[in-house]
Hints:
Two copies of one chain form a homodimer. Helix content of chain A is 35%, strand content 24%. Chain A is an alpha/beta fold. Chain A contains ten helices and 15 strands. The relative contact order of chain A is 0.15.
Amino acid sequence: MSARDVIGFGFAALDTIGLTPHLPELDEGVLLEDLTRQGGGPVAQALVTLARLGVSVGYVGRIGDDEVGTEIRTGLTAEGIDISFLQIEPGARSPQSMILVDQPTGKRSICAFRGTAGDIDVAAGMLDYLCSGRFLHLDGHSPAAALAAAEAASRRGVRICLDAGAGASLDHLLALVQATTVLIAAEHFAMNVASDGAYETGAARLLRMGPEIVVVTRGEQGSYTLTGDTAFATAAFPVSVVDTTGAGDVFHGAYLFGQLQGWDLVRTAEFAGATAALKCTRLGGRAAIPRLPEVLNFLAEHGRQWSG
Amino acid sequence: MSARDVIGFGFAALDTIGLTPHLPELDEGVLLEDLTRQGGGPVAQALVTLARLGVSVGYVGRIGDDEVGTEIRTGLTAEGIDISFLQIEPGARSPQSMILVDQPTGKRSICAFRGTAGDIDVAAGMLDYLCSGRFLHLDGHSPAAALAAAEAASRRGVRICLDAGAGASLDHLLALVQATTVLIAAEHFAMNVASDGAYETGAARLLRMGPEIVVVTRGEQGSYTLTGDTAFATAAFPVSVVDTTGAGDVFHGAYLFGQLQGWDLVRTAEFAGATAALKCTRLGGRAAIPRLPEVLNFLAEHGRQWSG
């Protein structure tokens, strides 16, 4: 088994994304300005980000043996992602989404078909693989299996990063949050767990549950970081936004990159924000995920000159 | 050049179709009940219908040399459709649509990306091909080229069938209507050309412009046929409707089948209605287009026993 720095465990899908002048009503037709078909899914997008930044990564998930599954696999291997432990369920249909991006506002409607594959099956041999990286990255998919993976990783000293998306629930993620080292939560998730509805309150509650670091991603409002020692906000970088699909996922991947480099928390959050901002400049979750030189140039243009 | 009974000239696309519990708002996510990706486009669907009914057909259109174009071509050749005169524009993107079918009502929202390929180019040698069938079927795509094709076909005694869809305009189709033998109009098109907004009035106006036969397709209301000698309505056949995408296109193909058999107008309209009804029983424009025995069985079950 070759060493991978990050193993991702969770959801991969295929997205069809249209750029529309407005959302159509029933019985209405609209002409799209653009349409694209790209790989998607929270963990998969984070891993593509890491791979493009130069990190060696592996993906564990479960898809079908249909043509869509083949497209998903081809997209991942083209990025150099190891999929030797990806589970392919015979006869199952793979997940796909249809996403409409409203051109005037950049807001999205997401229609997700989950497919028919079951939860990821954590077989005995797989635990060694899941614990072979420096980080295990989770998105809450296949919760029982994810928890088994997280507990094994914790025992072996592998750090755990958890993506708590806007649609996730704390009840669902509770056990995982307790095992997590770096928790990156969507603003809506942090607000939902706060007694007063404020994301800072939610972050504080989440931090008390176990993580060393809690980061709240706030879209065009930037990010907020909370640890036992510090709390700070970073602003988002200004870009011409075409599509925010997958921006959070890219933030996660880039944040893990900073962690692997041993960067301080401010630099890590700014790097992740810059990487996510660049992703938003083209239609689709994957097309505009940048490579490392592009991110460093972008940061330099915005006054962040880092030596090495 | 092998003999084809029908040559179709017009639009082909690739459709991604989702079955949704409701249309999402912006910033909303919904879980789709099903999702499929199939070939689409008015003329292409009519030709697939004819091919499945056993008729030898050819398709002339213009798409890009992208992967979508390859999928479109593969889908047509798999049906036995001759595409030797299909134009493939280097560097152009092929048309695709995203279609959301509202499960409770069966109504649709259609988001169409037209692609970047130009109009079909009617080169000299192509006119012989376009006029090689017993029918030339048009959908109004590439209007100048379609008119040149229609005029050549008229001169050579090839009958012309025109699909006047709900979104078409009479101004746009005027010259084509005059050259048409069989005009099949969506109800909305017929209503739009009527002084009083009634489809029967619209059909009468269209008939005076030149066609021998005008048929108005009315969805679950069936069809209406008008000629110089007769006017009659046929009821739609009751089926469990999943998705009406492409039902009109399938009606056109099946109507041409009846014309090729020399059937009387009532039988032709009923056969076309039965074929279109069967199409509606599955998600997607192409999946449920039936073969001839299936249509004949369905008609027999509904009391239409025809001998040969």
